[in-house]
From TrEMBL:
This is Ectoine/hydroxyectoine ABC transporter ATP-binding protein EhuA. SMART domains: AAA. The keyword GTP-binding does not apply. Keywords: Amino-acid transport, ATP-binding, Cell membrane, Membrane, Nucleotide-binding, Transport. GO terms for molecular function: ABC-type amino acid transporter activity; ATP binding; ATP hydrolysis activity. It is a peripheral membrane protein. It holds the Pfam family ABC_tran. The lineage of its organism: Bacteria, Bacillati, Actinomycetota, Actinomycetes, Glycomycetales. PROSITE patterns: ABC_TRANSPORTER_1 (PS00211), ABC_TRANSPORTER_2 (PS50893). GO terms for cellular component: plasma membrane. Belongs to the ABC transporter superfamily. Residues 2-255 form the ABC transporter domain.
Length: 261
């Protein structure tokens, strides 16, 4: 479903991902943990094509290939303009991936329903009626059927994040990326958002990659936990083993620090 094959990503002199290889199978839920700056968000951003691997001649610079459903993408020779066919191809692959960010990134001038219907109308070619029907059922799933005509500014942070989740799902992605989706929320709003995500995890077979500091949530929903440090996987395993019996000192120290927070 997802494959990183010896991916190297640099920002200037900083090597953020260092010959990183891993696979994610269809339907897997994988949690990425690790200290700040270890490259977790960069992995998600590469999958969303918000960042690119841009190989150059220098063997130390960017390299490797990322595959989604067997198709290579995010491999862009530096300086090349995207030709239309390649852009179309990338758009096709990108449609398979949905992302929810820490900041909700809703369109502030559109009502809730419109926030969720815009993508399906413009990117999937659904009619306004079809998109509205789909959006309403997703907004019901996230518990916001009574907010269709509200603007984002009229909602709490937790409600806005639930709209963002419905908006990502409205594109029918095969893969859902969640990047610290509760970090910007007041503590009392976190539980509702996590409950919605638990429901989605339990009721769909969508593949998920999560970056989260909510360890009990990660333990509940993930099949696998990968611990990153400096752009490499230090340790990986099932959630019970990783959270109860981590083997590597860096994982032990990281979890101690997070749990003491
Ligand atoms: N666009 C960019 N330009 C320059 N440096 C960047 C860019 N994006 C990320 N970085 C740097 O790359 C490193 C890895 O960042 P990344 O956001 O992937 O880490 P992270 O593990 O998600 O951290 P956090 O837990 O704090 O979100 C950091 O040192 C960051 O400053």
């Amino acid at each position: 479903m997802i494959k990183f094959d010896r991916v190297v990503k640099q920002f200037g002199d900083l090597t953020v991902l260092n010959q990183l290889s891993f696979d994610v199978d269809p339907g897997e839920r994988v949690t990425l943990i690790g200290p700040s700056g270890s490259g977790k968000t960069t992995i998600l951003r590469l999958l969303m094509t918000l960042e690119h691997v841009t190989p150059q001649r220098d063997p130390k610079s960017d390299g490797g290939v990322i595959y989604v459903e067997g198709k290579p993408f995010s491999h862009m020779p530096k300086g090349d303009k995207l030709v239309p066919a390649k852009e179309r191809y990338l758009r096709q692959v990108r449609k398979k991936v949905g992302m929810v960010f820490q900041q909700f990134n809703l369109f502030p001038n559109m009502k809730v329903l419109r926030n969720v219907t815009e993508g399906p109308v413009h990117a999937l070619g659904l009619s306004r009626d079809e998109a509205a029907e789909k959006a309403k059922s997703l907004l019901e799933l996230v518990g916001l059927s009574d907010k269709l005509d509200n603007y984002p500014s009229q909602l709490s942070g937790g409600q806005q994040q639930r709209v963002a989740i419905a908006r990502a799902l409205a594109m029918s992605p095969d893969i859902l990326l969640l990047d610290e989706v509760t970090s910007a929320l007041d503590p009392e709003l976190v539980a509702d958002v996590l409950a919605v995500l638990r429901d989605i995890a339990n009721s769909t077979s969508i593949t998920m990659l999560l970056v989260t500091h909510e360890m009990s949530f990660a333990r509940d929903v993930s099949n696998r936990v990968m611990m990153f440090d400096r752009g490499v996987i230090v340790e990986e395993g099932g959630p019970d083993q990783m959270f109860s019996d981590p083997q590597e000192a860096r994982t032990q120290d990281f979890l101690k620090a997070v749990l003491a927070d």
